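Priority: medium. Attachment 1 of 2:
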């Protein structure tokens, strides 16, 4: 009888392992959650990172209250540093963006890097960068831009954030070209940069594809080049940089995601990921996200998402070191 019971226990345990390894839904951890869950956002309320986080929080229903805490400052590192002081118990979730997670650790000394966390769920599809011009500009194509670069005229450009993904992507791109790096003109935020482009004060702008598409659709911008291996599905007439022989630009992706401490209990981390993944697949989340101009989200495994985050961080670090911004 004892032998039979032992065999039953073994079979049950094996079935449980098989279910989990085959993608079965994680079991809710015992006694979790039993208190409020905090989502720490290292950006201001209303920022690009804050809005999808609040949508997730609104749709999350796991039996306890949820609180969003904004801790902006120092290119997101203020909030990131505060998160490090929180226990690894799954009761504080970190909302992540490239600046604080993938870029700043290469610029200044910080007690964390991308490998200090478990990257659970992407709140948006990773977005390529692209070059756009004012629709009234005489630069309509990449050939027009290269002609101007060859002419010896001063060519000026900008992007949303100095030292951000667009900035690093442009440097990576031009490092592969025969042309001198154009003159960068810094602005405070996207709206100021857009105004400068529309006012004819700069020649081109580097921007996320979704934002570019909005401005191209309303006739304000012209798409010149997508900095990626393939053309953007929503802008099929705009060539991709790989078509012209430029490589590696697929790593420069804008992305927002949710993470927890590396040593968060495995059952809690998997349970949270399962709940977050359910939310981003709902019609309610997708509708709200697309209304904001983002692409519909995509579910990645934790390993796939980690590869995207780490791969981006590594190439950003290479560019930062090469242009002399590194620590």
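Attachment 2 of 2:
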């Amino acid at each position: 009888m004892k032998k039979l019971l032992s065999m039953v226990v073994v079979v049950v345990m094996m079935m449980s392992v098989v279910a989990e390894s085959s993608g079965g839904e994680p079991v809710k951890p015992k006694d979790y959650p039993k208190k409020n869950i905090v989502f720490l956002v290292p950006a201001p309320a209303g920022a690009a990172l804050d809005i999808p986080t609040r949508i997730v929080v609104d749709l999350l229903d796991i039996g306890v209250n949820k609180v969003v805490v904004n801790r902006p400052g120092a290119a997101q590192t203020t909030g990131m540093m505060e998160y490090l002081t929180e226990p690894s118990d799954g009761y504080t979730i970190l909302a992540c963006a490239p600046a604080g997670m993938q870029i700043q650790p290469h610029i200044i000394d910080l007690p964390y890097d991308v490998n200090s966390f478990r990257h659970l769920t992407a709140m948006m599809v990773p977005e390529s960068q692209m070059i756009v011009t004012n629709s009234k500009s005489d630069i309509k194509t990449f050939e027009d831009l290269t002609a101007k670069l060859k002419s010896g005229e001063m060519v000026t450009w900008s992007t949303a954030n100095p030292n951000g993904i667009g900035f690093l992507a442009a440097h990576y791109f031009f490092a592969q070209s025969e042309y001198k790096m154009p003159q960068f003109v810094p602005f405070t935020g996207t709206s100021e940069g857009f105004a400068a482009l529309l006012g004819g004060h700069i020649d081109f702008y580097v921007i996320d594809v979704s934002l570019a598409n909005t401005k191209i659709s309303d006739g304000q911008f012209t798409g010149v080049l997508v900095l990626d291996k393939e053309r953007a599905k929503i802008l099929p007439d705009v060539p991709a940089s790989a078509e012209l022989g430029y490589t590696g630009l697929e790593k420069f992706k804008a992305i927002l995601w949710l993470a927890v401490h590396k040593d968060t209990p495995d059952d809690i981390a998997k349970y949270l990921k399962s709940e977050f993944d359910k939310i981003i697949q709902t019609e309610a989340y997708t509708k709200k996200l697309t209304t904001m101009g983002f692409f519909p989200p995509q579910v990645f495994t934790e390993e796939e998402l980690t590869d995207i985050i780490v791969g981006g961080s590594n190439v950003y670090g290479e560019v930062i070191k090469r242009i002399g911004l590194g620590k």
